[in-house]
Amino acid sequence: MVGIVIVSHSKKVAEGIFELAVQMTGKDHRMIPVGGMEDGEIGTDAMRILQGIQDANDGDGVVVLADLGSGVLSSETAIDLLEEEIEVVIADAPILEGAIGAAVQASIGGTLAEVVEAAEQAKTLSKR
Prior knowledge:
Layout: E1 3-8, H1 11-25, E2 31-35, H2 46-56, E3 62-66, H3 69-81, E4 88-90, H4 95-107, H5 112-120
Parallel strand pairs: 1-2, 1-3, 3-4
Helix pairs in contact: 1-4, 2-3, 4-5
C-alpha cells in the first residue's frame, strides 16, 4: 500500500488531518502525521519527516503532503537523507483535501502515480 506522510508546521494540524483521513479510509493504512518540532514548537524537522517516510513505506512508495514552503524544503531534505531506496513524491496539493484524496486512493490499492494524482486533483475542487 502506498504510504502517506502529512507534514505540517503544527502537530495539531497534522494529527487533525490524519484523524479525518482515517475516518474516511479506516484503520488499515500507511499514513503518518509529522507535525511541529520534537519539543512541540511550531516548525518542521527533516529528521522527523525522514522517520515518517521510513515508517510509511512498505515498498509501494510514499506520498508527502506539506502545508507551507519550508515544510516542502524540509521534506526535500528528508528525501535527500534517505539511505534506502524509497520512491517518494511530494504532491503539489492542498494538504487537507489532498490528504483525503490520497488516503482514499491508497486505501483502495492505488499505485503511487494514482495516489499522487488523487492528491493533486484536489487543487481543482470548487467549494461553491
